[in-house]
Amino acid sequence: MKLWSQYFIPTLKESPADAEIASHKLLIRAGLVRKLGGGLYTYLPLGLRVMQKLTQICREEMERAGGIELQMPHLHPAENWQQGPRWAAAREIMFRADSAGDGKRGPREPELVLGPTHEEVITPLVKAEITSYRDLPKNFFQIATKFRNEIRPRFGLMRAREFVMMDAYSFDPTDEGAIRSYHAMKAAYEAFFRRIGVRAIAVEADTGVMGGSFSHEFMIPAEIGDDDVIYNEASGYAANREKATSALVPADLPDAAPVGAREEFATPGAVTIAALEAAPYGVAADQQFKTLVYVGDGKLFLVVLRGCDELEEAKLGALGFGVFRPATAEEIAPVMGAKPGSLGAIQGTIQDPAALAGIFADQAIRLIGNGVTGANRDGFHVRHVNVARDLAVTKFGDFRRVRPGEPDPRSGQPLQVRRGIEVGHIFKLGTKYSETFGAVYTDDQKQNHPMVMGCYGIGISRTLQAVIEQGHDADGIVWPWAVAPFQVLICVLDPQLPEAMEVARTLAVAAEQAGAEVLVDDRVERPGVKFKDADLIGIPLRLTVGGRGLKEGLVELKGRSQREVVKVPLAEAAARVTAAVHEAQANA
Ligand code: ATP
Ligand code: MG
Question: DSSP H helical segments within 438-569, as ranges?
């Protein structure tokens, strides 16, 4: 039992100006965290209690699924990352933690970095320690702080620069084993989210900079989420927008036949899709080609889409470049022979085709029967362009952003979109890391093979806030029982009355014996203040003990999410509290 007056719960009436969303406001107002700087937070006692519960439940589910807990350093030798497969991409978000300059290293070569995740540490460890198939499979996990120099830290703990993650890494001898490990983790995640009382859905996700073969994100549906989930309720299809695909282009679509010969025409000043749609040209956006130029690992490449479509940049990850970015106008002109706005992918019109790493076309351009594209000559376009006849496509793929209403790839029914918060992510990694770091094992025939890896992460601190985002009302937080900082709050309205405190203590003992954690509000404050704070901090079960009630031989019982207050005779109070706690535990 904790006494509020002796504890530290600094509640606030107002939320700070930088808190835009409900859960962020409540985090601060309910005294769970305080901000130190952008994306940096102190966990105050209540917030820490919730973190400890989330951590413990996560640990239990990971261990149940066969995970083995360990703890790796937060500071990593930069060398580990330089040897790894994603140094170029990862260094953008890594904090450097150089030791005082020894003058030997240039400013761009850090000696130590703060770990944003731990593949580059665990894989060399496993390489050094595990050599035989007899010691596999293994799944190691830790629950620890991660550091990422997010460009835009925001929404409190949702996107922080220092945050707590459960990260796990599985090592299997075979691909089938790795798939089993992946499914065991997926089930453990589902159990974790169920136990903490939040609804999280597994959606197909992009593998991004991690590479690897497949992946799911766990999303909590919420308006303020950073991610779009594309889904169809009936078929069960659900994918992150970066990964989502649709059946817009039928697999058996025949190539369009050419309509007349290609013809260049002058389009002075018309450098946008919209300009060509307008008079005097009148070319529908879905009959135009959009030609984008990117730089991948130092070489230019083209991406061709329909004029009406948007590039889903993450899908370029499938092309296998380590890093890629849009090319600048200065990089484009000498290779293409024209400025953006007049570009195209027609064979023979590109000034220096040998400078290109490839021409990658979204498959939806096959829906264009008779198209218009840039002539690679400023102020000119070409009409009657036929995909099969005219475009020098290296490879077709899915690069466009799916729009709601398009046919679901599973059922053909319209896709829908909703916002979600990513709280967890699982990857089947394959052998990318084990090959890079030489994490091989010897089988029973004395043959060496790379281990097949998976990696898995749950944002524990982000989840804390997502729980609030999903569980609050106009008055404050409504904690699920399993993660509430305390389960029972006893509001003593007249703490100066010894008999009131006496009753509170008796009831606290009863609740504790039933297995609840109890906070006693013994502050000398007006009832209105106490009830407001009680709603704000959201403890599931509230008991009110007051001088007036005691005269009538009554105490009050109220659930945080219920409106009505139940008056309970003093003699029955302990039994009623015990029953209420047991019932809540059974439902949790
Ligand atoms: P996001 O897309 O939100 O940037 P991510 O895909 O980079 O996240 P992962 O590398 O998959 O994140 O990390 C695993 C989990 O860690 C995420 O699912 C998320 O819950 C959490 N997480 C990632 N970045 C942050 C952050 N900046 N602040 C808080 N939690 C984070
Ligand atoms: Mg992720």
Answer: 460-470, 498-513, 527-537, 547-551
Whose C-alpha lies nearest to ligand 1, atom 29?
A: 159
Quick one: 486-587 is in which CATH superfamily? Anticodon-binding domain (3.40.50.800)
The topology under which CATH files domain 263-397 is YbaK protein (3.90.960)
Supply the residue whose CA is at minimum distance from atom 13 of ligand 1.
Answer: 457
Distance CA 353, CA 223 (A): 45
Nearest-ligand number for the alpha carbon of 146: 1
Q: Which of 288, 385, 301, 361 is nearest to 335 (CA)?
A: 301
Name the residue at shortest CA distance from atom 22 of ligand 1: 459
Domain 22-227+420-468 has CATH 3.40.50.2300: no
Nearest-CA residue for atom 1 of ligand 1: 422
Predicted model pTM: 0.87
Atom of ligand 1 nearest to the CA of 161: 27
β-sheet with 541-545: strand ranges across: 2-3, 518-521, 488-492, 541-545, 554-559, 566-569
Nearest CA residue ID for atom 18, ligand 1: 424
Task: Per residue of the chain (588 residues), give pLDDT as tens.
Answer: 999 999 999 999 999 999 999 999 999 999 999 999 999 999 999 999 999 999 999 999 999 999 999 999 999 999 999 999 999 889 889 999 876 555 555 556 678 999 999 999 999 999 999 999 999 999 999 999 999 999 999 999 999 999 999 999 999 999 999 999 999 999 999 999 999 999 999 999 976 655 556 899 999 999 999 899 999 999 999 999 999 999 999 989 999 999 999 999 999 999 999 999 999 999 999 999 999 999 999 999 999 999 999 999 999 989 989 889 999 999 999 999 999 999 999 989 999 999 999 999 999 999 999 999 999 999 999 999 999 999 999 999 999 999 999 999 999 999 999 999 999 999 999 999 999 999 999 999 999 999 999 999 999 999 999 999 999 999 999 999 999 999 999 999 999 999 999 999 999 999 999 999 999 999 999 999 999 999 999 999 999 999 999 999 999 999 999 999 999 999 999 999 999 999 999 998
Domain range annotation of the chain: 22-227+420-468, 263-397, 486-587
**Ligand 1 center from residue 459 Cα (angstroms):** 6
Beta-bridge partners for 418: 229
Peptide bond into 110 cis (omega under 30): no
Best residue among 92, 169, 462, 467 to mutate for probing ligand 1's pocket (most ligand atoms within 8 Å of CB) is: 462
Which residues are near ligand 1 (CB < 6 Å)? 117, 148, 150, 159-160, 163, 165, 226, 422-425, 457, 459, 461-462
User: What ligand is nearest to the CA atom of residue 227?
Assistant: 1
Helix (H, G, I), strand (E, B) or coil at 47: helix
